[in-house]
């Protein structure tokens, strides 16, 4: 779903580029030219991100990080909640919030899968020190398809 929004926003940027270009051609106004340049920049950035993410997912071009990690809740003021898995100094963001106790002092054995180029989180699992599976987005997706 996230990829669809990236593509939609990118296409809207391209649409605004066409509109601003036509306006600039009529008026030859510097402000309109500035809007064209801004629309080009926004289109390249957003469509570039969407393209990298789509390519990674289509070619299953993933990286997998394993080891000890801890989880931080990234509850934003906008109401959206995400979590970040910290592997030492490296961090990766994920959408699914675990239904186990986490936060300071809770260290898990983690396995996380991210897209290689964009490094956005795909799946992750948390295990106890004994190796017991505590939370997994892998199992949630397999339940949805069954």
Q: What topology does this entry show?
A:
Blueprint: H1 2-27, H2 30-58, E1 62-73, E2 83-87, E3 90-94, E4 108-115, E5 121-127, E6 133-136, H3 137-145
Provide a brief overview of the structure.
This protein is an alpha+beta fold.
Strands ordered across the widest β-sheet: 3-2-1-4-5-6
- Helix count equals 3
Helix content: 40-55%
Task: Identify the overall geometry.
Answer: elongated
Model regions low in confidence, pLDDT < 50 over at least 5 residues: 142-146
N-to-C SSE string, H for helix and E for strand: HHEEEEEEH
Give the total of beta strands: 6
Main sheet attributes: strand count, strand direction, barrel closure: 6 strands, antiparallel
- Class based on secondary structure composition and strand pairing: alpha+beta
Give the end-to-end Cα distance, rounded to a whole number of Å: 20 Å
User: Average pLDDT across residues?
Assistant: 86
Strand content: 25-35%
Radius of gyration: 20 Å
How is this structure best described in words?
With 146 residues, the chain is α+β, with helices and mostly antiparallel strands. 44% of the residues lie in helices and 28% in strands. The chain is built from three helices and six strands, in the order H-H-E-E-E-E-E-E-H. The chain has helices at 2-27, 30-58, 137-145; strands spanning 62-73, 83-87, 90-94, 108-115, 121-127, 133-136. It has a six-stranded antiparallel beta sheet. Strand 5 and strand 6 form a beta hairpin. The longest helix is centred in the N-terminal third of the chain and has 29 residues, at 30-58. Residues 142-146 have low confidence and may be disordered.
């Amino acid at each position: 779903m996230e990829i669809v929004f990236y593509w939609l926003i990118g296409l809207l940027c391209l649409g605004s580029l066409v509109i601003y270009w036509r306006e600039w051609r009529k008026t030859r106004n510097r402000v309109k030219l500035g809007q064209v340049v801004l629309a080009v920049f926004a289109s390249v950035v957003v469509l570039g991100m969407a393209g990298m993410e789509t390519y990674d997912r289509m070619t299953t071009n993933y990286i997998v990080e394993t080891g000890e990690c801890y989880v931080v809740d990234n509850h934003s003021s906008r109401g959206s909640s995400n979590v970040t898995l910290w592997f030492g100094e490296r961090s990766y963001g994920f959408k699914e919030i675990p239904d186990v106790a986490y936060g300071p002092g809770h260290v898990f054995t983690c396995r996380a899968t991210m897209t290689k180029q964009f490094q956005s989180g795909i799946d992750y699992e948390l295990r106890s020190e004994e190796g017991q599976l505590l939370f997994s987005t892998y199992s949630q997706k397999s339940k949805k398809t069954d």
